[in-house]
Write a structure and sequence with these properties.
This protein is α+β, with helices and mostly antiparallel strands and 73 residues long. The protein has one domain. It has 1 helix and 4 strands, in the order ββββα. The two termini are 24 Å apart. The mean pLDDT is 87.
């Protein structure tokens, strides 16, 4: 996993989940290349972004959807 300091500098189109409400508690993703996805805080478009591979992102989303982050509520 890597990161960049200014997510707005990445040449990507950002999107939010269709499950996101109109509130500001969202993360956005952008496809960097065939293997890399950037993830940023929607409230901080010029803030940092994590760069993860698709497998890492898929595992995180699956784990979160299954509620296996016990104690983080």
């Amino acid at each position: 996993m890597n990161s960049v300091g200014d997510a707005s500098a990445l040449p990507v189109t950002w999107w939010k989940s269709s499950y996101s409400d109109t509130g500001a508690q969202c993360v956005e993703c952008g496809i960097v290349d065939a293997e890399t996805v950037a993830v940023r805080d929607s409230k901080r478009p010029h803030g940092p972004a994590l760069l993860v591979n698709r497998g890492q992102l898929s595992a995180f989303v699956s784990t979160a959807a299954e509620g296996r982050f016990g104690g983080l509520e």
